[in-house]
Amino acid sequence: MLFEVKYKLLSALRSGRYQHTKSELQEVGTYFNEDELGEIDTCKYCALGVLMKIKGYDPLNHDNLWHDPDDPDTPSQELPSYELLEKWGMNKEEAHEIARYNDKAEDYIDVIKYIEENL
Predict the structure, then answer these.
(1) At 105, phi and psi to the nearest 5?
(2) What is the per-residue pLDDT across 89-117, written as a single tens digit (0 to 9) for each?
(3) Most buried residue, 14, 41, 73, 90, by most Cβ within 10 Å?
(4) Distance CA 100, CA 18 (A)
(5) Above 80 in pLDDT, residue 14?
(6) In which region does residue 117 sit, left (phi positive, over 0), alpha (psi from -120 to 50) or beta (all else)?
């Protein structure tokens, strides 16, 4: 992972601006807030989804998602595209490890530690 990308991602994950989710780059939900008498949209992100957001890419845009060469019509909801990973100095295995550390916890602490120590 490129140093600049690593620094920005770690800063974003520590910032508290992003709510954590598992198994997808971005989770969009709506809940009813009785105090404000209306629905509020909320987004949660896995660590790779945070990376996409801070780098200006939409995690819900299928063009930005990983496409398996054996099934190019079905994008992954868990990984950015090969082109984006390459641009950020990452390979598919590193991205899978980030996703794995992200998905085994309820927050970003383990994935932060993995990125600091291994990328």
Answers:
(1) -135, 170
(2) 999 999 999 999 999 999 999 999 999 99
(3) 90
(4) 18
(5) yes
(6) alpha
